[in-house]
Amino acid sequence: MAKTKTRYCCQECGYSSPKWLGKCPGCNYWDTMVEETIAERSYPSNQTALAQPIDDVEIGEMPRIVTGSVELDRLMGGGIMRGSIILVAGDPGIGKSTMMTELGRYLDPLTILYVTGEESARQVKLRAKRLGAATSNVLLLAETSIDSILSAIEDSVPDVIVIDSIQTMYDPEVSSAPGSVTQIRESAAALMRLTKKMNAATFLVGHVTRSGSIAGPRVLEHLVDTVLYFEGDRNHGYRILRAVKNRFGSTNEIGVFEMTNSGLKEVPNPSEIFLSERQTGASGSSVICALEGTRSLLIEVQSLVTRTSYGTPQRTSTGFDPKRLQLLLAVLEKREGLELGGHDVFLNVAGGMRAEEPAADLGVAIAIASSLYDISAESCGVLIGEVGLGGEVRGVGRLELRLGECAKLGFQSAIVPKRSLQGFVSPSGIQVLGVETVSEVLGILLP
What we know:
This protein is an alpha/beta fold. The protein is built from eleven helices and 23 strands. Helix 2 (96-106) packs across helix 3.
């Protein structure tokens, strides 16, 4: 008989403790520790594991399922790898179930088993008909018991399995409620074992917590092969699907989609979309070129600098690290003499994007100076460079890819770090200026 033990698990972050705690030490949320009874299972093994030299390991073919969706295939590293398990997470209503339903249209005539634990089979069919994905190759199963689901998978032998969502699944041998840390971990582990055995591909739809992370333990992210995050505002039409983890492709790759009445539509040229509503000649606006995986994107950075009405000036940023913003403001005030201590600074990365790499520093700094002096930054063109604490402009990588995107969208000039131009031949149609300090760029902005 299996031994049982009791422990308390946080339903937000997965932290476990032998005794109840009012506040979780892992995520600092109150009243999230729930008692769970766990049975220690024994897995007998009569086989002896033998190690072998790495030269003797046979790789074989690496088959992929090509969906035909350019954005999704690039995210997955060229297609969906058989034998892999993919976690798709995002806020409620952002488009997770929509994309999973559209797989029926992309992967016809491959067999897809769609397991729905939150909706009825009728609701899923109505959505599939609206999206044009109600094809005969899609099998629907409204079930939450993991044992019944595993039995149905073995009977139908699908090529692709969709679990919507993993938080609704439960293992009868685990006493805790569905959605708990233990249930999520055990259900995902059982699906992973069967996925590898049948050489299929499994998509797990997951919810996010109040802090924006995937609900359940962090081990769920370590368990799967690929983690895809849906980003974007439900009040806007654009969705960004980001590959946070990918064992079969590059990470930080993104796919851009537009939510329409007929489903998610691919956006082949996101830079053009992000810059389409940019006002020409407006102060406080600059254009940066950011790398997202293997793709370069031109993004507008907007800044508004006004005199403060409070004792302590406000520093607010959307899509940019607030601590990085504070650092750049200190550099501008200390090294360049900009009087920002009595001003509120608001920063926004347009289009719902996030500018995370240091190459966005120069564009952010010039957007702030442009708003402070109420002068347009059009003369600077595209701004690329990392700003150091001494006011120097540091080099960035993959400059050729960035400038190629600038030239393709019709920009005639760009300011880049001078160090990055060593041995570099700039593309035709764009004038490239190398600078060493922020002061040189401010000299162009403030003639």
